[in-house]
Amino acid sequence: MTEVNNQKNLLDELVKNQVDQCLPLRGVRPADPAKKESYAAFMSQYEQVRGRPLFYKYMGTGRGSGPYVELNDGSVKLDFINGIGVHVFGHSHPTVLRAAVEGSLSDILMQGHLQMNQEYLDFSQKVIDLAKGSRLTHGWISPSGSMANENALKMARQKNTPARYIIAMKDSFAGRTTMMAEVTDNPNYKVGLPEYNEVLRVPFFDKDDPSSTETTLKELKKHIANHPNDICCFYFEPMLGEGGYKVAPKEFFIPLFEECRKHGIAIWADEVQTFLRTGEPFAFQTIGFEDYVDIVTIAKTAQCGMTLYTEEYNPQPGLVAGTFASSTPALASGAAIIDEMNREGYFGKSGKVAKIHEEFVGLLQELCEGSCKGLLEDPEGLGLMVAVTPFSGDRTKILKLLHHMYEKGFIAFGCGKDPFRLRFLVPAIVSTDDLKVACKIIEESILELKDS
Ligand SMILES: Cc1ncc(COP(=O)(O)O)c(C=O)c1O
User: Fold this and answer.
1) Whose CA is nearest to atom 13 of ligand 1?
2) What CATH class has 16-95+348-449?
3) 174: CA distance to ligand 1 center in Å?
4) pLDDT at residue 2 above 90?
5) How would CATH label the architecture of 101-343?
6) What is the pLDDT of residues 349-391, one digit of tens each?
7) Which atom of ligand 1 is nearest to the CA of 85?
8) Sheet holding 410-411: strands in order across?
């Protein structure tokens, strides 16, 4: 017992030291001119390895604090993209570090579906427990969002065999495997790939079109009529992610779901980007259609992929497997993140996520109506997923803006097609001051580039 306590104290101390050492990184810092040459050498090595340039010239030191991250050029940047949505608690969060360090001392680094340790069960059970109000009673872990989606599609197809077609929204993003590239509605992500012609499209909600729900329902009915008993699932993101951070109300979804139910079509929500981020643990709870989902996929904030499903969609043995489930530190950290979000009041209408959303959108709105009037518009999103449109959505100008902001110490990203938008995956630990730093850099950058 004393030995266990000693080890526990040692780990606590190790984590505390690391967190304390990183605390001075709270604040944007420019690159160190003395590191310019060595950093440039890293970048050209990266480019050589990957065969093309990086989007951002980014190489982290492995140190960061809260929403700030240190790079090998000596700079510290405010990170509002977090590995495209992975690090919901930002950098060097004590809870995440502690779980990861403990997990890394396990006898095995990677867990699979044949030999699992306690972390596999703990994580799975916690996610299923979060899915309150739904009929999701099972979950299968996988190494990524794309694999979680692949498993989901197989489950839908097996249950509804021999139905082949998938209904998906226009501008969807489902991942990078061959099949998920097909489900994804972005030709730039599948140049040279053959079309398998298995996906039928319906439009996502358009807040500027009063007959949007009617139009989508009509399209859905048309597909169902044209392909009787040959549609296995309705795949959708509860909030359009890569497609432009567009939000839809419950009233848009329900008639679509009712129609799918009538025809035995699986209702599959891709929550790879929305999980833990929209105010409630799942966006299906935030928007309010818990009862309808048959299959739900998650990844990113979860630190691994997972497909959740109802008893009805429980696949036959042999359909889903794979060598890797996830790593022990990732499973332990995923469980710890869920615990911390539950314990520390992140969820709910007046939870921390909702407060951050309100504050950030409010600050962006001030810019839209004030110094950036005519240059910035339409801040929207759900919870920690926020987007805003600068320069009327001009992609070339916004790509320039992203790099300009990056040089000034702020990392954001883009999304959407017409308009292209600025996208933020805000870490759940930001303070009001951090949000103000972000808005200051956005404001300055827009004003500096407006005539370029
Ligand atoms: C909605 C959605 N689905 C699926 C994926 C693919 O996940 P992964 O990159 O982990 O394979 C992503 C990734 O951005 C996503 O946003």
Assistant:
1) 175
2) alpha beta
3) 6
4) no
5) 3-Layer(aba) Sandwich (3.40)
6) 999 999 999 999 999 999 999 999 999 999 999 999 999 999 9
7) 14
8) 60-65, 68-71, 76-79, 410-411
Whose CA is closest to 116, among 91, 89, 80, 140?
A: 140
Chain Cα centroid distance, residue 340: 18
Question: What are the residue ranges of CATH 3.40.640.10 in the chain?
Answer: 101-343
Q: Which of 279, 224, 283 is nearest to 428 (CA)?
A: 279
Closest-lying ligand 1 atom to the alpha carbon of residue 149: 4
Per-residue pLDDT of 6-27, as tens digits, reads: 888 999 999 999 999 999 999 9
DSSP 8-state code for residue 66: B
- Tell me, in angstroms, the distance from the centre of ligand 1 to residue 348's CA: 25
Q: What is the pLDDT of residue 71?
A: 98
Strand, helix or coil for residue 391 = helix
> Which DSSP category does 168 fall into?
E
Q: Is 203 exposed, middle or buried (0-12, 13-18, 19+ CB in 10 A)?
A: middle
| 81, 87, 142, 146: residue to mutate for ligand 1 pocket, most atoms within 8 A of CB | 146
